[in-house]
C-alpha cells in the first residue's frame, strides 16, 4: 500500500472513531420515525402512538408514527431492513413477525437475523366479534349458525400474517369450517366495514375492540385469553365458550435496522424501559385490556428469545393448516 493511501486510510479510520461516539452522544438529534405495519386508528397503531409519546418523553424527541401498510404487515419490516441503521427509523411489530416466516414462501426479511431487537412492549388479547345484527347470542349458537350458513358469512382480517388472520385461521380450524375471508390493510378499516355490516366476523385485539364491545356496537363471542379480561368481565373466554385450549396473545416488539450502533440501541432500550413504566402508557394499555411487560422483557435478549420461541410454536401449526402466501 502506498504511503499516501495508508495515511488516507488512517485518517478515515480515525474519523470514524471520532464520529461514531459523537453520533451516539447527540442521538436523537431529530425526530424518529416509528413504523407501524397496519392502518391508522387500529390496534397496533393505538399501541404505537401511545408508546411513541412515552418513549419520546424519555428521549426528549418527537416520535412520528408512519403507517407502512400492506401485504399482511410484511411491507414495514422489509422497509426497516433497507433503512439506514442510524436509529431514526424504527418499527413496532407484533406476533406477525413470528408467523410470517411460515406463512410466506418468499419473505424479504429474517426476523431474527436482519434486525437489532430493542425489546418487548405489551401483551394484548383478542376478541371474536361480529356485526351487531348477527343473530347468535353466544359462542355455541355462533358455531351452529356458522355451520348452517357457511356460504353466506365472511370473516374480515388484516391480510395473511396479521393477528386477525392467525386468530381467524385457528377459529375456523377449531370448528372445521372454511369461511370466505376479506383482507384489509389493518383492522381499523375491517372494523369500519363490520360496523357497516359489509362483513360478518372479525377477531381483533382489545386495544381496538374494547370500546365497541362496551357500547354494544358489535357483538362479542369470546376472548382469546386464558382467563376473563378485567376490562370485559362479562365476556367468556373462547375456551370457556366451548373451544378448549384456544389462546392467542398478541405480543409486541420494537425493532431497529441491523447495524444500528450499540450506543444508539442502548439509548433506545433505556427509552423503551422508561416508556413501558410511564404511568400514562400503563393506564392506557390496561384500559384497553393490554398487559405491559415487566422491565426484564423490554430487552433485546428477551425479544429475540420470544421471537425464537414463537416461530417454533407457530410454524408447525401453520404448516399443518396448509396456508401459504407468495
Ligand atoms: N393489529 C392489526 C392492526 O393494527 C391487524 C392485525 O394484526 O390483525 O390493524
In a nutshell, what does this entry contain?
The protein is built from 12 helices and 10 strands.
Structural key phrases:
10 strands, ten-stranded mixed β-sheet, 12 helices, alpha/beta, 19% strand, binds aspartic acid, single chain, globular, 326 residues
Describe the protein in words.
This protein is of the alpha/beta class and 326 residues long. It is built from twelve helices and ten strands. It has helices at 3-26, 43-59, 75-81, 96-103, 139-148, 163-175, 187-195, 206-214, 238-241, 262-276, 279-287, 300-321, and strands at 32-36, 63-67, 89-94, 115-131, 154-157, 180-183, 201-205, 218-223, 249-257, 291-292. Strands 1, 2, 3, 4, 5, 6, 7, 8, 9 and 10 form a ten-stranded mixed β-sheet that branches. The model has no long low-confidence stretch (mean pLDDT 93). The structure holds aspartic acid. Aspartic acid (ASP) binds next to helix 2, helix 6 and helix 7.
Amino acid at each position: 500500500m502506498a504511503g499516501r493511501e495508508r495515511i488516507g486510510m488512517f485518517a478515515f479510520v480515525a474519523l470514524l472513531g471520532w464520529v461514531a461516539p459523537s453520533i451516539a452522544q447527540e442521538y436523537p438529534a431529530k425526530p424518529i420515525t416509528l413504523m407501524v405495519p397496519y392502518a391508522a386508528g387500529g390496534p397496533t397503531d393505538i399501541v404505537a402512538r401511545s408508546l411513541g409519546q412515552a418513549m419520546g418523553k424519555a428521549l426528549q424527541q418527537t416520535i412520528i408514527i408512519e403507517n407502512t401498510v400492506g401485504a399482511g404487515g410484511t411491507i414495514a419490516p422489509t422497509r426497516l431492513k433497507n433503512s439506514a441503521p442510524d436509529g431514526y427509523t424504527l418499527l413496532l411489530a407484533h406476533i406477525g413477525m413470528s408467523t410470517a416466516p411460515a406463512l410466506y414462501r418468499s419473505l424479504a426479511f429474517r426476523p431474527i437475523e436482519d434486525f437489532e431487537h430493542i425489546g418487548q412492549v405489551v401483551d394484548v388479547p383478542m376478541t371474536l366479534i361480529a356485526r351487531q345484527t348477527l343473530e347468535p347470542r353466544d359462542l355455541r349458537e355462533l358455531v351452529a349458525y356458522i355451520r348452517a350458513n357457511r356460504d353466506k358469512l365472511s370473516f374480515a382480517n388484516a391480510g395473511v400474517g396479521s393477528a386477525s388472520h392467525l386468530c381467524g385461521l385457528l377459529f375456523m380450524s377449531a370448528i372445521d369450517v372454511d369461511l370466505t375471508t376479506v383482507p384489509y390493510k389493518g383492522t381499523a378499516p375491517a372494523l369500519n366495514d363490520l360496523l357497516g355490516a359489509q362483513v360478518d366476523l372479525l377477531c381483533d385485539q382489545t386495544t381496538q375492540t374494547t370500546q365497541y364491545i362496551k357500547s354494544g356496537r358489535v357483538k362479542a363471542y369470546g376472548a382469546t385469553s386464558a382467563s376473563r379480561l378485567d376490562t370485559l368481565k362479562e365476556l367468556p373466554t373462547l375456551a370457556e365458550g366451548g373451544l378448549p385450549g384456544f389462546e392467542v396473545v398478541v405480543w409486541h416488539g420494537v425493532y431497529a435496522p441491523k447495524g444500528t450502533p450499540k450506543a444508539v440501541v442502548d439509548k433506545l432500550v433505556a427509552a423503551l424501559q422508561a416508556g413501558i413504566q410511564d404511568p400514562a402508557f400503563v393506564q392506557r394499555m390496561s384500559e384497553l385490556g393490554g398487559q405491559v411487560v415487566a422491565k426484564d422483557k423490554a430487552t433485546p435478549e428477551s425479544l429475540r428469545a420470544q421471537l425464537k420461541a414463537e416461530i417454533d410454536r407457530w410454524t408447525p401449526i401453520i404448516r399443518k393448516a396448509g396456508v401459504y402466501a407468495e
